[in-house]
Amino acid sequence: MSETRVPSDVAKRLLEEAAVQSARIGVPMGFAIVDTAGHLTSFERLAGAGWVTVGLAQGKARAAVAFGSSTAELAERWAGAPLFATALIAQNSGDLVPAPGGFPIVLDGVVVGAIGASGGTGAQDAAVLQGALDAVTG
Hints:
Elements: H1 8-25, E1 30-34, E2 40-45, H2 53-67, H3 71-78, H4 82-91, E3 102-107, E4 110-118, H5 122-137
Antiparallel strand pairs: 1-2, 1-4, 3-4
């Protein structure tokens, strides 16, 4: 299967809308967009967001695209299998973060990448991204 990317205009709008949603709740965040191979294609770290948001947002996006599922769903699915989750994370050099705040990006019924957020609670990260996805991809 060939690598698919989020179109640049869609990525730009997603990052802009995520920033709006983040400002609305007053929590600075970092946002990462990856292609279907998990490679970083776009990133934004808002003023005041910690440096750690960089890696966490990317890890959430990678987990979402790897499994075609929101990371909140992955966290719930793997809650009863902590050894499996730990092994999966370790096997992938820590590049998968199955914590709330990551979503596949679906355009015309096809997963074209994923977006991750970090900086708030998992629920805040997920809500900000859900708002951005709803606004941009409807």
